[in-house]
């Protein structure tokens, strides 16, 4: 079972919204990031009933919104990676026009990557169904608890416990969805998630990725401000290029510490000096 034991860092993004403070607008957020090691071994066992996650073509074709920021003359030098954007059931339930929301939001994601690293993303979209998270009986806005979700939270993919567990869902997507046509896979869901890191059961997890991996699983729910939805995607994509949580240069704003959550999406450089060193543009 441990033959493929890998020690990887999983990035976790936790956002707590300030909604009761007197003079802070609802859209303001404080972001807390933690650097949490997780030991992960290749899951050979199956999800109950051998059910695999299923991809399906959206009923209406999702036409990517033009990446607004691609300068005509920079196109020649920018290296474009194929980004597969996969929309989960909770995401499709959350937005009246989920196709447009996904297309609009993703169009902002590559602005700093193009300007700082000459890396752009060519996005295409598909729907994902039959994920563990789709089976959760709790509403899309409810945080899971051990009491509500069955036995103690469990990261493994071979059982039906804790459907909102982000690690479980990420690993399930990594196992079931393989396609050489795409460089990076990003799954969007619309519910806060959880996970076990060490002995802690953490809730309100907004995204998870393994460092330098090409899959990420994250929440982009409508309760999150439009700006932060983009920042969550950028943050998780940075993990896919070698950046970590908790290693930012002291007192510096960074995409890895939430420092750009309230800052214009037209900002070219969103990395502190430490994370800039960690970023490996050739990771993919
Ligand atoms: Zn992170
Ligand atoms: Zn849980
Ligand atoms: Zn940083």
CATH topology: Collagenase (Catalytic Domain)
Amino- and carboxy-terminal Cα gap: 28 Å
Percent of residues in β-strands: 25-35%
Mean of residue pLDDT values: 80
How is this structure best described in words?
- The protein has about 280 residues and is α/β, with parallel strands linked by helices.
- It has a single domain (about 5-40, about 55-280), classed as Collagenase (Catalytic Domain) (3-Layer(aba) Sandwich).
- Helix content is about 20%, strand content about 25%.
- It has seven helices and nine strands; from the N terminus they run E-E-E-E-H-H-H-E-H-H-E-E-E-E-H-H.
- The protein has helices spanning about 90-95, 100-105, 110-115, 145-150, 165-175, 225-240, 275-280; strands at about 5-15, 30-40, 55, 80-85, 120-130, 185-190, 195, 200-210, 215-220.
- Strands 1, 2, 3, 4, 5, 6, 7, 8 and 9 form a nine-stranded mixed β-sheet that branches.
- Strand 7 (about 195) and strand 8 form a beta hairpin.
- The longest helix is centred in the C-terminal third of the chain and has 14 residues, at about 225-240.
- The two termini are about 30 Å apart.
- The relative contact order is 0.18.
- The model is unreliable at about 1-10 and about 15-45 (pLDDT under 50).
- The structure holds zinc ion (3 copies).
- One zinc ion binds near residues 11, 13, 33 and 245.
